Amino acid sequence: MKIIAQNRKAHFNYFIEYKLEAGVVLKGSEVRSLRNKGTANISDSYAGVDKGEVFLYNSHIASYAQASYQSHEPTRVRKLLLHRGEIKKVIGKVKEKGYTIVPISLYFNRKNIVKIEIGVAKGKNTVDKRQKIKERDIEREQRAILKRK
Length: 149
Known about the structure:
- By secondary structure, the protein is of the alpha+beta class.
- It is 32% helix and 36% strand.
């Protein structure tokens, strides 16, 4: 599994309830760009439901220089491929207040197919984020003390 891009802030900004693996509908120049450069950004992207289908918004895949006249738009809306039961489960959660679909990582699976890991998540408030920062600082201090001894 070759990771192309990760959303490192997803675990900091959201409580992720469960994760799903989804396929991504891409054009040929997008796949070539991901294979050669691996330049993709999903940190500002999000997924949404429209007419019973799940789409990925605001994700950036760099344009491919050697593409023919039909190059892709870097931030176009991309369809995510999920099973019908998974889509219904996601729609049910997103209709609840405070839940959203967050992309976690974009990668090539074993068969060299581009997949995206999405999570159904609930947003954290600032108190939760501060608590996470405090826990991280305490762990860092403990590691430093153990290292000195």
